[in-house]
Design a protein that fits this description.
414 residues; alpha/beta; Rossmann fold; three-stranded mixed sheet; binds sulfoquinovose-uridine-C1,5'-diphosphate
């Protein structure tokens, strides 16, 4: 199959390109490199050294013997999107090119607006360009488990049966995003569902949990590494906890630490996305896959990381900052995930094994982490003004905390 990946330079996009190429698919990517720019904006960088995209393409050619097609451009430009879809006629489009950080979207009004305008515009451009240029292609759209929030019921895969005032229907399950970012994904889901109906498009909306990991089997050489973020804005819970342990900084489960999320190893996320691509939705069908392996509370993950850190002669402490987010810190959490296993999905990576793998790599890149020690402390607050202390019993910061000057530009660099 020919697969177009938007956001091919990102944490998931890059290993997905390698995975699909290794499986014999033809892959073309799009990126505008805005994540590289925005991680710099908050004063951080990838813990793994990542080459320029041109060097990545050379590495793919030399190490894998494969060609990776690439268009540098911005999904905010409809003519660009239409041109690529018309020129390439992909069988599937995996749409990952969105502002993906909840804390980033909560910095201020400008970051909230940029997140929602960019994410919704990019998705609408793809939907319209598909209608015009490749109406038989299958859209695999990256959503998030966070669209559902944490309801006090089980969470179905997108839809559920409802009986109200004596009448029954099969309806979308209510969405309750926990940040402007998560709400952008909720609005996207509505747009993709509607477009599938009116344009007769094939669409799979992937409700993905929090991803952790640094490697996939295709990453056989440092030149093929994917990015690994560890700062408070771009790093996600488990990855951040391991980076904190390597740094000797406190591991930071927020608040009571009993908030639960669905988690998935990077490698198994690649397997899931490939299965979605290889088993397309029918014309006019909008389907929803919940994509995660197991649910953990952040306390469980912090304890796990602290225990495994001992194997690497590290002795991290766990501290509980007041939760900078507005979220339930203790709640019921029981999402269902049956669609992907029905397509053949099987978990391949155990949590402890991946945690050890991340420790091993991060210890190699320890100096890159050390230089970013100041960006691991949470500063973005969901509720402002807020006078709660950021970190109980925290010493004065060793380096100035990062600031978030100005608003991000909607004109992402090409
Ligand atoms: N958390 C901590 N301590 C930290 C960092 C996070 O306790 O140092 C907690 C958060 O409060 C939250 C949970 O861990 O309850 C998850 O936070 P996260 O930063 O790992 O993930 P989140 O902001 O929800 O977003 C990430 C990705 C996003 C993806 C989402 C899947 O950045 O792109 O959509 O995970 S999900 O969480 O299922 O919505």
């Amino acid at each position: 199959m020919k697969v177009l990946i938007t956001g091919v330079d990102g944490y998931s996009g890059w290993p997905l390109a390698l995975h699909l190429l290794a499986r014999g698919h033809e892959v073309v990517g799009i990126d505008n490199f805005v994540t590289r720019k925005r991680v710099k904006e908050v004063g951080s960088w990838s813990a793994t050294p990542i080459p320029t995209f041109a060097k990545r393409q050379v590495a793919v050619r030399e190490i894998m013997g494969k060609e990776l097609g690439f268009y540098r451009g911005d999904l905010q430009n409809y003519d660009f999107v239409h041109h690529v879809l018309q020129a390439e006629h992909p069988d599937a489009i995996v749409h990952l090119a969105e502002q993906r950080s909840a804390p980033y979207s909560m910095i201020d009004v400008h970051h909230a607006v940029a997140t929602q305008v960019e994410n919704l515009t990019g998705t609408l451009h793809i939907l319209y360009a598909m209608k015009e240029a490749c109406p038989d292609a299958h859209l695999v759209k990256m959503g998030t488990m966070g669209e559902y929030g944490t309801p006090n019921t089980d969470i179905p895969e997108g839809f559920f049966d409802v009986e109200f005032h004596g009448r029954k229907d099969h309806l979308p399950f209510p969405r309750q995003g926990g940040s402007w970012y998560h709400w952008s994904k909720v609005f996207d889901s509505g747009d993709v569902m509607f477009a599938a109906k009116i344009f007769n498009l094939r669409a799979t909306d992937v409700m993905q949990g929090v991803i952790y990991g640094i490697r996939t089997p295709e990453i056989t050489d440092d030149r093929l590494l994917t990015r690994f973020d560890f700062d408070e804005t771009w790093g996600t819970a488990l990855n951040r906890f391991i980076a904190q342990a390597v740094l000797g900084s406190p591991i930071t489960p927020y608040g009571r630490g009993e908030q639960k999320r669905g988690f998935l190893a990077l490698e198994d996320s690649m397997q899931s996305l490939r299965l979605a691509v290889e088993h397309p939705a029918a014309p006019g069908e909008y389907r929803v896959f919940n994509q995660f392996d197991a649910s953990y509370s952040v306390n469980e993950l912090a304890d796990r990381v602290a225990r495994i850190a001992g194997e690497f002669d590290l002795k991290p402490v766990i501290e509980h900052p007041a939760d900078p987010r507005v979220e339930a810190e203790q709640h019921y959490y029981q999402p269902i995930h049956e669609h992907l296993p029905a397509l053949g999905y099987r978990r391949t990576r155990e949590l402890d094994e991946v945690v050890r793998e991340i420790f091993t790599d991060l210890l190699r890149f320890r100096r890159r982490l050390e230089a970013g020690r100041h960006v691991v402390v949470p500063t973005v607050q969901w509720r402002v003004p807020d006078s709660r202390p950021l970190l109980k019993a925290r010493a004065a910061p060793e380096a100035p905390l990062p600031t978030h000057p100005g608003s991000p530009s909607l004109d992402s660099p090409a």
